[in-house]
Amino acid sequence: MTNEKSRPKPGASRGVEFVTKRLLGALGILPFLLLIAVAFFAIIEPRFLSVGNISNVTRQATYLAILSMGKMLVLVTGNFDLSIGSNVALVSIVSTIVMVGVITADPTAVALAIMLGIGAGLLVGLAIGLFNGIGVAVFNVNSFVMTLGTLSIVFGLALMVTGGLPVYGAPQAFSDIFAYGSLFGVSVPVLVTGGLFLILYVVLNWTPLGRYLYAIGSNRRAARLTGINTTLYIIVAHVLCAVIAAIGGLLLTARVATGEAGLGETLPLAALTACVIGGVSLWGGTGRLSGVVLGAFFISMLTNGMNLIGVNSYGQILVTGAALIIAVIADQARLKLLGQRQRD
Fold first, then answer.
1. CA dist list (Å): 199 to 75, 193, 196
2. What is the rounded distance in angstroms from the CA atom of residue 273 to the CA atom of residue 197?
3. 3 or 196: whose pLDDT is higher?
């Protein structure tokens, strides 16, 4: 005879299952990591929860959030983009060189220099995105291999153009506006991040493009059979990712006020970690934009906390890599829990 006290109550069991599935389905392991990290750093370093520090973390998270949102567009199609770091570097260098060239020719043409520099940076991102997209969608090169090759090519171009040295001379107004400027008390980088979030939220949730990207990631063959031009939309995903990365690169360039080949060195790992921790599946077809932004905030918060307690840069890279591995393991557990299968 079974002891009724040992049986789980049906209502409680269903409630736990519902909460677990909803939580893991929406944000993956992120809520647990956020709670652990906040508690850990708050106990060790009282300054961590100060208003000034939270404001600093938010400002730092904007750059990573932009790059992570762009990377998400490729990930939901079941592909990768490892080239966003070198994308940022080349955008930084090209935009700065253009601005310096215009200012050198006419010191009074500050506005023109900034506009042309921004335009040149966006064109660089567009070209990189087209290169990646065509290689993956038209020539069927594995996206991991394709974008890894692009990373090397673009980074090599950045080093060749500059000789590995920073490019100085960008107009001060560029930094004053796009790094330290504000509107209605909100900094320009935060406004840009918020604007991109709203645009991408609408695209992913309320437009055919968003539905097609998720459909391709869920099952590319089925998407093709339903009439979706998978080649076109994979190219579009790579182009959007690269252009968004270029926007992030321009904002980072304004922040450091120079064009630097090493500007995006650690960004690919951080952005991928933010996406996976935020609930984006590496197998495509799953992920929410809000989770990605929170993932970027978590990574920035983790970096900030480690800085406050004195962890050096090498240790921070180690922790970020470990967080990525944990996130991938959790992603697999989440897929199993939700009854999903990997895409063929």
1. 18, 10, 5
2. 18
3. 196
Hey, how many other C-beta atoms are within 10 angstroms of the C-beta on 199? 12
Q: Do the beta carbons of residue 261 and residue 89 sit within 8 Å?
A: yes
The Cα-based distances of 173 to 109, 183, 255, 329 in angstroms read 11, 15, 12, 46
- Phi and psi at residue 182, to the nearest 5°: -150, 160
Return the SS3 of 62. Answer: helix
Q: How many CA atoms lie within 13 A of 313 on its CB side?
A: 2
Residues 134, 143, 65, CA angle at the centre, nearest 5°? 100
**What is this structure's pTM?**
0.87
Q: What is the pLDDT of residues 18-31, one digit of tens each?
A: 555 555 554 456 77
Distance, CA of 186 to CA of 86 (rounded, Å): 29
Q: Quick count: other Cβ atoms within 10 Å of Cβ 54?
A: 13
| pLDDT tens digits, 52-88 | 888 888 888 999 999 999 999 999 999 999 999 999 9
If phi > 0 it is left, if psi is from -120 to 50 it is alpha, else beta; for residue 287 that is left
